[in-house]
Specification:
- The protein has a domain at 31-74 and 93-135: Aldehyde Oxidoreductase, domain 3.
- The protein starts with 33 loop residues before the first strand and ends with a strand.
- The strands form 2 sheets. A 4-stranded antiparallel beta sheet has the order 3-6-1-7, with helices on one face.
- With 139 residues, it is of the alpha+beta class.
- It has 2 helices and 7 strands; from the N terminus they run ββαββββαβ.
- The model has no long low-confidence stretch (mean pLDDT 95).
- The radius of gyration is 17 Å and the shape is elongated.
- The protein has helices at 46-59, 113-124; strands at residues 34-38, 42-45, 65-68, 74-78, 91-99, 104-109, 131-135.
């Protein structure tokens, strides 16, 4: 699973304002031919990213090339089970990628459009946000 090698801060503020608005960067398909674009805001965990990647890779039978254009930089904390309220913030538990509407999450190349669309739709079922398939060849 994806996780940063180094962090400036071990714990970060929860921050609900970082999902407001639409994406201005990372909203174009820049590496491949097909893409999976976010239509809603949210946080995607590193486990969800890995599950989606494995689904796409297995469906295209390792035929094409896949790019993951998001990375889980933000650590989320969790308190241990049955711990009373208070006594500070919990320990870092997992990492998430903050996604705004319009962000391209995955890109693909080297397969036909029908296969790419099916693979991306299967991958979108693994994610916690709404997504749509985009094709740069159709203009």
């Amino acid at each position: 699973m994806l996780a940063p090698k180094k962090q400036k801060h071990r714990k970060v503020f929860r921050g609900r304002s970082d999902t407001k608005g639409v994406a201005t960067r990372g909203c174009q398909v820049s590496f491949g031919t097909y893409g999976l674009k976010a239509q809603s805001a949210g946080e995607i965990s590193s486990r969800q990213i890995e599950a989606a990647r494995r689904t796409m890779t297995r469906y295209i039978k390792r035929g094409g090339k896949i790019w993951i254009t998001i990375f889980p930089h933000k650590p989320l904390t969790k308190k241990a089970a049955e711990v009373p309220m208070g006594s500070g913030k919990g320990a870092p538990d997992h990492f998430v990628a903050v996604v705004r509407p319009g962000t391209v999450l995955f890109e693909m190349e080297g397969v036909d459009a029908k296969t790419a669309k099916t693979a991306m739709v299967l991958a979108s079922h693994k994610l916690s946000i709404k997504c749509k398939f985009i094709n740069t060849l159709e203009k």
